[in-house]
Amino acid sequence: MDRYMKAPITKEDAASLSAGDYVYLSGTIYTARDAAHKRMQETLDRGQELPFEISGNMIYYMGPSPAREGRPIGSAGPTTASRMDRYTPQLLDMGLGGMIGKGKRSEEVVDAIVRNGSVYFAAVGGAGALLSKRILSSEVIAYDDLGTEAIRRLEIEDFPVIVVIDSKGNNLYETAIKEYREE
Question: One GO MF term, please (predicted)?
Fold first, then answer.
């Protein structure tokens, strides 16, 4: 089923999604990869506030290439989400609405997705140049010293993703394998 949704995503929107749904997101999302997640964890450990409001927002696991002339961002493909798994349950418990990446997630992350009524989307790996065309603007908002791993606020329009793990814990990676083996 194709769906068009606004980001940040609401709990009601997340609850309406099912693993396998195609979703076109428009609105505001944030980027953060390994180094930014580590820095966010250190910030939380010091009792300080994160550089953007986590509650309801969405993190895209992506580090862009330099922008081409006339474009707000370069190639913007997803990175492997499991590298952020050690940090993700806490962010979900703080209200993170969703994540975009590629690849499997740990059982702890799946449990936290269900516990918090969140959602994990996958973007197509290898399609970074095409995905970048759905990004209207990009602004570094924190950790500029991290270069491509800095946190960015992106404005997106009809950004294509697939629901991999829905708020009920249904996991497309598991169900797709099962369906394939049954054929």
Answer: hydro-lyase activity
